[in-house]
Design brief:
This protein is mainly alpha-helical and about 325 residues long. Helix 5 runs antiparallel to helix 9, helix 6 packs parallel to helix 9 and helix 6 packs antiparallel against helix 13.
């Protein structure tokens, strides 16, 4: 008995328990990164943030690109047209994300982005002609109601920040759908394309809004790119160590961190309407995920939940 116990403990640690721990760590890193990004948008433009975070990310990615086969592997990437479209969508999503967090509390922006799985299900039915049953359409409707509760549309409350955040969340949903269609592409290739695209976009935009960063701010701008890569590695590895149904619900801790960081770093007090709408959105997204697990019969590694895991906002 005593000899087998350590082995059993090791197996448990290497499976679901470690998967959950990596998911929680990855979401915390994303949330901390988004908080740092919001803080930097008070001084630096979106173009500068995109440029400097991408340079740091490319430096980190360099050895992995070489290990995979260098530029020849990138040139051989499947479906180049769709790869190009994905690059455009990523640039739009990142731009809208940083733009929106410069205008809104972090928790509000993350609430709109948490509606991503709801948007994906609706867009999959409309664009990809995938079958969506009645209960899932009801969940989609509930998710939209949650967004409306958060948005509180009126002539006084409807702001540019809210519209930009919704636009960013739609870009995010489109990114998940396109990534679903490019699952045969290696992760390093997808990361390289997206990072290069944001670097080029930032290089074009940044000179018009350039503010020379202090050494500390320069380090913070570079840190955003490195931490984002580390967070994505944690989330991706989590999904390989444990079933998506076990680890995906922990992604909703992003909203908890957004509220905590927003309150203690920026003094943002969450509104009741945001908390109510967020609860409805999370419930709708989680129901859609469970429904797909039970009735969709997806192929291994081909669920909406895993797409969300591979594409966390920011």
């Amino acid at each position: 008995m005593s000899a087998s116990s350590p082995s059993a403990s090791a197996r448990a640690l290497s499976g679901p328990v470690l998967g959950i721990a990596l998911m929680v760590l990855g979401i915390f890193l994303y949330s901390a990164n988004d908080t740092l990004g919001k803080w930097l948008t008070a001084t630096y433009s979106v173009g500068m943030i995109m440029l400097l975070r991408s340079i740091a990310a490319v430096v980190v990615l360099g050895p992995f690109i070489q290990k995979q086969g260098g530029l020849a592997t990138l040139r051989a990437a499947p479906r180049p047209g769709l790869q190009l479209l994905r690059v455009f969508v990523i640039v739009g999503e990142i731009s809208f994300f940083y733009w929106s967090v410069s205008l809104l509390p972090l928790a509000d922006v993350m609430t709109y982005y948490l509606a991503g799985p709801v948007y994906v299900t609706a867009l999959s039915a409309l664009l990809l002609k995938e079958k969506v049953d009645g209960p899932r359409w009801l969940a989609i409707l509930a998710g939209f109601i949650g967004v409306v509760i958060v948005l509180q549309p009126s002539s006084e409350s409807l702001s540019w920040g809210a519209l930009i955040a919704i636009g960013g969340s739609l870009f995010f949903a489109a990114l998940m759908i396109i990534t679903r269609q490019l699952r045969g592409t290696p992760d390093t290739t997808l990361l390289t394309f997206s990072t290069t695209a944001t670097l080029v976009t930032g290089a074009v935009i940044a000179p018009f809004t350039w503010v020379t960063p202090t050494p500390i701010d320069f380090a913070a701008l570079a840190l955003i790119g490195v931490v984002a890569l580390a967070a994505q590695l944690c989330v991706t590895r989590s999904l390989r160590l444990a079933p998506a149904s076990v680890v995906v619900p922990y992604q909703y801790t992003m909203l908890i961190w957004a509220v905590v960081f927003g309150y203690f770093v920026f003094g943002d007090e969450p509104k009741i309407s945001m908390l109510v709408g967020a609860a409805i959105i999370i419930a709708a997204g989680f129901y859609i995920f469970l429904r797909e697990q039970r009735t969709g019969k997806p192929k291994p590694g081909d669920t909406i939940a895993e797409e969300v895991g591979d594409n966390v906002p920011g």
